[in-house]
User: Fold this.
Amino acid sequence: MSLNDVLAYIDHSIEDMTSDLFPLLRQPSISADGTGVQECADLLATIMRRDGITTDVVPTAGHPVVLGHATTRPEAPTLLVYGHYDVQPVDPVDAWTSPPFQPTIRDGRIYCRGSADNKGQLFAQLMAHRAWRAVAGSAPINLIYLFDGEEESGSTHLPDFIRHHRGALAADAAYVSDGPVDETGRYRVALGVRGLLALELVAHGAARDYHSGHFGNLLPNPAWELVDLLATMRDPDGRITIDGFHDDVEPPDTATADAARELPVSPGDFQTRHGVDRLAPMPEPGFFERLMFHPTLNISGLQSGYAGAGSKTIIPATAAVRLDLRLVVRQDPDVIYRRVCEHVARHAPHVEVRRIGGAVPPSRTPLDSPVVGIVEKAVEKVTGAAPLVFPSTGGTLPDHVFTRILGVPLVKVPYANADEANHAPDENLDLAYFRMGIRIAAAVIDAMARLPKKEV
Assistant:
């Protein structure tokens, strides 16, 4: 049987496949507070078993991993497919047009929490396997499915899971579908992500708030201490000035830099679309280069003293700032954390540095890895257009567990529409993109049969 037969089956069965997605969407699975996560893992495992995938729900120190195997061809390559079944919280509930866990079709889209991020996309992967099994008896390659229950909470326990299950995860490549297509409507082939380190800096002053007139210039002001400290961490032109911060940054090779430079972009359109009249300060040129090859030091929140109506003239007792740092290839979150602590100790020894959640290292698959070209051609075959190749994206996923722990190349092809509203009210998945995602997954399975085993 040919790929064309499989694609025809998908087109014929798309309504049933859409209906079969709905029970998974109805089941809450909010990893931040654990709501429905175990029940969702069990439901997902049941769905996979019905489609002939040998599946286990594997406990971790946090939420369970759903691990499935469809391995019937010892001589064929093995593709490890990653996704996540957990979802973001739904607040504010009143902002949803329809209930967040009641999948509703409006104007050709499924509206529901998890429809695009990531239940709909992982389900597209499973439906591609269903199609191959229905048409040809089995896929032409071996497939391993690893579905995470903690991605929206940092995948804290995934690295240990990967280390403890190396044998069950032996593969030639990893494949992920998460996030949206390009805003131009073209599909993306993405090869990397930036890492993430989240911190809180806390400054303490007196035991309580004090009158700013009676005690101003006498008592230390924690808010000013943090402002002064932050000013030592970044120049006005955007350059991070923490000692040693850039020591391990690896510049891209020529081919990778060229690939980023060739991506279509209009900074002016970007600014208009987002309601700004400027880009953030940055000493290095290049739009996508900023996202792919340079780390960030972002202030995500500031808190100190009085924030109510009117005036309250106080010296606050405490002040805090939340930072998130996006890291690029070769930067180690633990090393960066130590360098931040050393910097704070030199410039503001009374400020406390706290880590928030688990850190995620960066990851990037080389542009010349054979799996990259294979996936590119598969996407072009079914969509009719060459995909945009992104050496990296600006966000963070736990890609490093595959590229650095398992040592396999990873390629990501997002299936969701660009306006998916993931993490927001009225999250949605365009039905046309859901169907095309299944077709792309089926084509990738077909193309991966031509990947030499253990080519890496």
